[in-house]
Every structure is written in C-alpha cells, then in structure tokens.
Amino acid sequence: MDAGNDTGFGATEIIIVLLVVLLLMLGGIFVYKHRTNNGVSLKGSDKTRLAIKRANTLNQPGVTNFSKIVSFSAASTILSDIGSLKPVPQGTYNCPSDDGVEYSFNFTNPTLSAAASATGCQWVTINNRSYSSTDRFWKDVGTAVQQPIDPNSNFR
To answer: What are phi and psi of 71, to 5 degrees?
Structure first.
C-alpha cells in the first residue's frame, strides 16, 4: 500500500474540524444568551409568579415598604417589559437624585431576580448588568402593585 494515497483524515484535519464545530457551538450559545437577556428565557406562562418588594431605604416620609405577589398576567406583562429593555451603554452617567425607593422583582417559572430604583437613573439590574427602564415598565409595575411607584415624589 502506498503511504501517499491515504484518503483518511489526519490528526491535523480532525483537530481543525473539532475547533470549527466548537466555535460554531460557542457562537450559538452567545447569540442565545444575548437574545434571552443574560441567558434567562423571558417567556411567561400561567405558572409565572412574581413577588415585588418595595424598600424605602432612606426612610422617606409617606413611602411604605411592602411585598406583594402579583397576578399571573401582571407577572407575564412585567417579564415581557424586562425582556424588551435595552442594556445601558458603558460610560459615565450623571443621574438625577435618587430618593432611596428601591424595588426588587423575584420571578419563578422562569427564575429571574431583578432590582430597580424608582428615581435616579431608574436602571433595572439583572445579573449585575444594567438596563434602561421604560415608562411602560414603571406603569405596569404601578398597575401590578396598585400603588404609585414613588408616592413621595412627583414621579409617576
């Protein structure tokens, strides 16, 4: 048998094929995570649950702390709102004053935790990444908890 007529793959070719497959898989994972807001699927269902807590961290008068479990439809709506938020571009920001009214959102089915300030930059933080909130997001939160977002300010 002539060694020059070997038609099989050599070790170099196999390694190249494996590296290409690995890169394609990693690229697919990156795209999936980027499209699902840091790897969390943001599709609600009738099993989606949401607990919203409001904390008045600076003890502003007239702002009560609370914790509420909201309806399935409100949970799905807020989950959808969060899924549509855009990441905050890196940089330095001068935010308006923050009066210490903080919200935390704990979803189950899917599992997701988020936090947001009612004033200041009003960013929503998920997995240590900040997203720009929207008027729709805050309106839906206010409707879900049946209270003004920040009763101590003129905000909403």
So the answer is: -65, 160
Neighbouring residues of 14: CB distance < 8 A, sequence distance ≥ 6:
none
| Interval 17-40: pLDDT, tens | 778 777 777 766 554 444 444 444
- CA separation for the pair 54, 18 (Å, rounded): 50
Dihedral, CA of residue 13, residue 17, residue 22 and residue 28, to nearest 10: 160
pTM, two decimal places: 0.69
Residue 115 to residue 92: CA distance in whole angstroms = 20
DSSP string over 29-96: HHHHHHHTTTT------TT-EEEEEEEETT--TT---EEEEPPHHHHHHHHHHHHTPEEPPSS---PP
The whole-angstrom distance between residue 126's C-alpha and the CA centroid of its chain comes to 4
End-to-end CA distance of the chain: 84
User: Contact, 150 vs 119, CB < 8 A?
Assistant: yes
Amino acid identity of residue 47, one-letter, is K
* Maximum separation of any 2 CA atoms in the chain, in Å: 92
pLDDT tens column, 112-134? 999 999 999 999 999 999 999 99
* Structure tokens, 26: 């990693």
